[in-house]
Design a protein that fits this description.
With 351 residues, this protein is an alpha+beta fold. Helix content is 25%, strand content 29%. The strands form 4 sheets. A 6-stranded mixed beta sheet has the order 10-11-12-9-3-13, with helices on both faces. A 6-stranded antiparallel beta sheet has the order 18-15-16-17-14-19. The protein has a 5-stranded antiparallel beta sheet with strand order 5-6-7-4-8, covered by helices on one side.
């Protein structure tokens, strides 16, 4: 089905990179600008979808992930993460329910490793796990009028962040954003019709424009370059409803809980601008002048900004951000200029 979808996108002007990711529809800089102010939609084929089925799905996933899986339903999705025993995130992702299963949407670059590790712990549980990315087309829709545009096409939209609904084979999820922002999962036929309807009054954009919207929303996405690098709180996961501190055990839970209740969090994720293009890769290290040989943080994700340079999310030492300039790659590298996140960092608000 994916080849049919790629053919459809090509017919609509999509340009692809070597990995098959849509980079633009012919005007990369304009698409970035429109994404920040207008109504846009994007192909999200760089995200894989893993299905979990079986009688024991809820109890099994509850024992693996950082959030409370019992809250996932046909009307409610959630962000969550899968951690090592040391509390470091192997991956983070969005969970949603439809039909008779729970679905996990995460970067395709991590899906194989993620699936192999998760299967190791199924043992005698009645759970099947499979990559069903070929069965779904995945779109993102954002903009001041995104809700009304989708409502006109589908008849109804989720009203609050993390809410979900499935209608006519399309699962629609509301996600955090500077404007109303949605992700839609559905069949080829369903999504071709949705694309054609959206294309009347919304602009198609490439993956960099959608990534920029995610970064501006302060939502981290773990990539291969940052897998096992951060405890959830370092990447602000609890501030975007990705961690539940009252649930039972899961890998790394003791570390995550200890950091929340007993320890002092020394690193946080910040939003910032960097005067460089192309953007740095996830995992690129950050430094300060007083510690030129010791990394104080890492880039989570970065995407080009229409005004030049790029916007980035970076996990770095709180003290380093307070005391001086944090720079990319070396103590004299490009400056990471802090920008305002759409939510408060408790440590910063309390001084």
């Amino acid at each position: 089905m994916k080849q049919q979808w790629k053919n459809f996108l090509e017919a609509n002007g999509a340009e692809f990179d070597d990995n098959g990711v849509v980079t633009s529809f012919g005007s990369p800089r304009r698409e970035l600008s429109v994404a920040l102010t207008g109504n846009v939609f994007a192909d999200l084929s760089d995200i894989a979808v893993i299905a979990a089925h079986g009688r024991d799905v809820q109890s099994f996933l509850q024992g693996q992930f950082s959030n409370d899986i019992t809250n996932v339903s046909a009307s409610r999705s959630q962000l969550s993460s899968y951690c090592t025993p040391k509390g470091r995130m192997l991956a983070n992702f969005r969970l949603f329910a439809r039909d008779d299963g729970v679905y996990i949407a995460l970067p395709a670059a991590l899906s194989e490793t993620f699936l192999q590790r998760l299967r190791m712990f199924v043992l005698m549980a009645d759970v099947t796990l499979e990559d069903v990315s070929e069965n779904f087309i995945h779109l993102g829709v954002s903009g001041p009028d995104a809700a009304s545009e989708l409502e006109a096409i589908l008849g109804e939209v989720p009203q609050s962040v993390d809410d979900a609904l499935t209608r006519d084979g399309c699962t629609l999820i509301r996600t955090p954003g500077m404007h109303p922002r949605f992700e839609v999962f559905g069949s080829l036929d369903c999504m071709q019709k949705l694309w054609e309807a959206l294309n009347v009054r919304c602009a198609p954009v490439g993956q960099p424009a959608w990534g920029l919207l995610r970064v501006m929303a302060g939502v981290p996405m773990i990539q291969p370059g940052t897998s096992e690098a951060f405890v959830p709180q370092m990447a602000n996961m609890e501030l975007v409803n990705g961690v539940n501190f009252k649930k039972g055990c899961y890998p790394g839970q003791e570390v995550v809980a200890r950091m929340q209740y007993l320890g002092k969090l020394k690193r946080r994720m910040y939003l910032g601008r960097i005067a460089m293009e192309p953007p740095p890769e996830p995992g690129t290290e950050l430094f300060t002048a007083d510690r030129p040989d010791q990394s104080v943080g890492r880039i989570v994700e970065a995407y080009p900004h229409p005004d030049g340079g790029c916007m980035a999310l970076a996990v770095t030492q709180i003290e380093s951000m307070r005391q001086g300039e944090v720079r990319l790659g070396a103590a004299d590298g490009p400056l990471f200029e802090p920008a305002e996140l759409p939510y408060d960092l408790p440590e910063i608000a309390s001084g």
